Amino acid sequence: MESQTYAQTHDHHAMKPQPKWQDWSLVVVAGILFLSPWLFGTVTQTASSWNAWIIGIGFVAFTLRTTFLPPPGAYANEHTHEGGRAAWWQKVSDSCQYTHIAKEELVVGAWMLVAPWILGFAAIAAAAWTAWIAGIVIVVLAVWKLKEL
Question: Which of 46, 66, 81, 119 has the greatest number of C-beta atoms within 10 Å?
Answer without folding.
Answer: 66
